[in-house]
UniProtKB/TrEMBL annotation:
<dbReference type="InterPro" id="IPR000014">
    <property type="entry name" value="PAS"/>
</dbReference>
<protein>
    <recommendedName>
        <fullName>PAS domain S-box-containing protein</fullName>
    </recommendedName>
</protein>
<dbReference type="InterPro" id="IPR003018">
    <property type="entry name" value="GAF"/>
</dbReference>
<dbReference type="Pfam" id="PF13426">
    <property type="entry name" value="PAS_9"/>
</dbReference>
<dbReference type="Pfam" id="PF01590">
    <property type="entry name" value="GAF"/>
</dbReference>
<feature type="domain" description="PAC">
    <location>
        <begin position="91"/>
        <end position="143"/>
    </location>
</feature>
<feature type="domain" description="PAS">
    <location>
        <begin position="17"/>
        <end position="89"/>
    </location>
</feature>
<dbReference type="InterPro" id="IPR052155">
    <property type="entry name" value="Biofilm_reg_signaling"/>
</dbReference>
<dbReference type="InterPro" id="IPR000700">
    <property type="entry name" value="PAS-assoc_C"/>
</dbReference>
<dbReference type="InterPro" id="IPR001610">
    <property type="entry name" value="PAC"/>
</dbReference>
<dbReference type="InterPro" id="IPR035965">
    <property type="entry name" value="PAS-like_dom_sf"/>
</dbReference>
<dbReference type="InterPro" id="IPR029016">
    <property type="entry name" value="GAF-like_dom_sf"/>
</dbReference>
Amino acid sequence: MPSNEPPAPRTKDVSIGDIRIPDLFRDLPDAVIIADETQRITWYNTAFQTLFGYSQQELIGQSAEQLYAAPQSYEKQRSAGFSVAVEDLDHNYEMRYKRKDGTSFLTRTTGGPIRDKEGRVMGLFAIIRDISQTRAIEDLLHRLFDISTDQALDQSGKILAILKLGCAHFKTDSALVSWVQGERYTILYSYSDLVDIPRGTVFPLGDTYCSEMLNSGGPLACHTAKQSQFGTHPCYDLFLLETYIGVPLIVDGEIFGTLNFTSPEERHPFEAGDLEVIKMFAAWVGQQLNFEKATNQLPTETTTLT
């Protein structure tokens, strides 16, 4: 009796001349996936495994549908943009996929049929690049620009709006702008869902994570303090802050203080790009502080804040 089982995936045997198709894509830095004409996955490279979170053979023979963040996106690509029957179609598009853990991300995808010299379809391919971080930074820049040019906000309102935006981006509860004089750490601006710290509140610099950050000379981040060098820091004993990301604030070309975002809860690990993003936030806050300095609103060494 004939079997009801679909034929085994065969893309792994497809070659161009003496070169097997997977060998062309194996070492590319972008994720590459190959499927047969029915959208069953036959091969993917190491970069795909890293991006999507699957092991080497876990998806072989399964439908590509499970990779799409929205079922309707799969149907649209199956019936149009990724169809083996479509000729002369632009196969470069943005698509939102989902990882094995269920998280979704935005990509720039190039995909289409793989054909032999006679035009016969041998399979389908897609080259996938994660652009979610790039798009997020673009969106942040637009929002920061909107805040800085909002005529309804004064300088203080703009800084607080930037701090609120930073908390949302870094998934933290609180944000501080500090003025550092020697070992004095003075709060200038505070935004928090948990507790309000009044302007002019002073802490010993050594009791803050920012002391470590300033010693490092650049941005510093920690997503679980108790399992890091911060676990024995005085700040952890005093405030039990698990999450911290901070950076020096530059005003008029000199270090003026710090910008930091914190939370008593752990979060997923920071990425290298987050250290660049907080420098971007610091540049915008520093710009507002420069405006304050130009109008004599910024504290100086002889200023006492109350």
